[in-house]
Amino acid sequence: MPAVVSARGLVKKYGDLVAVDHIDLQIEKGEVFGFLGPNGAGKSTTMHIIQGTSPLTAGRLEVLGMDITARAKEVKALIGVAPQENNLDPDFTVLRNLTSYARYFSIPPAQAKKRALELLDMMQLTEKKDTEIEQLSGGMKRRLIMARALINDPQLLILDEPTTGLDPQARHLIWEKIRDLQKRGTTIILATHYMDEAEQLCDRLVIMEKGKFLLEGTPRALIEEQVGSCVMEVIDPPGQGIEDYLATTGGQVERSADRIYLYSRQCQVIQSEFRGRFPDVYSTVRPSTLEDVYLKLTGRRLRD
User: Fold this and answer.
1) What is the DSSP string of the chain?
2) Span 244-280, pLDDT tens digits
3) What is the DSSP pairing of strand 212-217 with strand 204-209?
4) How many angstroms separate the CA atoms of 137 and 165, rounded?
5) Could you tell me which of 268, 266, 265 has the C-alpha nearest to residue 226?
6) Nearest to 35 by CA among 288, 296, 213, 297
7) In a designed cystine with 186, which of 7, 31, 181, 199 is the match (CB 3.0 to 4.6 A)?
8) Phi, psi (5° rounding) for residue 21?
């Protein structure tokens, strides 16, 4: 079976700026595939190319077995997109936003209304079906955008920051729906800044920076390969001696403004020896996460 998304040497330039820099990509049917990276890394640009809204500069891209350059219109009919920004129509009610959007896919009115009501029920928005958009909370708007992306029962669903601004209950509702869609065979591309979200949902993911893929793999494999199984944190370490000592343990040492991180597979043993040597210095051990991988690769400083 051909891959749902297959890219070779994909390039996107804006003048002298290279937003996507010769990437290769393969996404299989039924996968949840994640894009991680700081702002400006090229995640959204890559997703815009895949959905056919931004022409590629060079390379080759097939989506659902079709060349995106030659058959973008056909591809768009088979995918659903939930963008990061709120682009709902403020002049329409909740229900009308869905039924009007269904016209783009030539869905008959009766079928569109039936499908829209099913999706509102799925997203727990049935009671808001006659509500104007401006009266919805931010979380409700995000759930409605997700429902709209599903109106054409897409084979490929593209989600750009789907849970930004949601409370924990709404966030977990979206996670549940993503898992349900995957079980039904939908392929999902997910861009997120929430590392726990990527770790929970993604079968595979890439970490991007400056238009290139830094890493690709399963969340668990990337954690084990890049930082080990655990992290020891030393809080407010006094002086340089502690960092020098930790560097002799065989783990990877990283320093931030107020703590030292030691990535290892033997944190408990190292911490026991550390406490014997530095009894007055506070340290803690925890399992390593995808966030540790991300920060190790892209740094801890803020990006604009």
Assistant:
1) ---SEEEEEEEEEETTEEEEEEEEEEE-TT-EEEEE-STTSSHHHHHHHHTTSS--SEEEEEETTEETTT-HHHHHTTEEEE-SS----TTSBHHHHHHHHHGGGT--HHHHHHHHHHHHHHTT-GGGTTSBGGGS-HHHHHHHHHHHHTTT--SEEEEESTTTT--HHHHHHHHHHHHHHHHTT-EEEEE-S-HHHHHHH-SEEEEEETTEEEEEE-HHHHHHHHT-SEEEEEES--SSHHHHHHTTSSSEEEE-SSEEEEEES-HHHHHHHHHHH-TTS-EEEEE--HHHHHHHHH-SS---
2) 999 999 888 988 888 899 999 999 999 999 999 999 9
3) antiparallel
4) 10
5) 265
6) 213
7) 181
8) -120, 85
Q: How far apart are CA 298 and CA 209, in angstroms?
A: 8
Residue pair 176/123 in contact by the 8 Å Cβ criterion: no
CATH number of 5-223: 3.40.50.300
Side-by-side strand order, sheet with 259-264:
252-255, 259-264, 230-235, 283-287
Per-domain boundaries in the chain: 5-223, 228-287
144-163 pLDDT per residue, tens? 999 999 999 999 999 999 99
- pTM of the prediction? 0.91
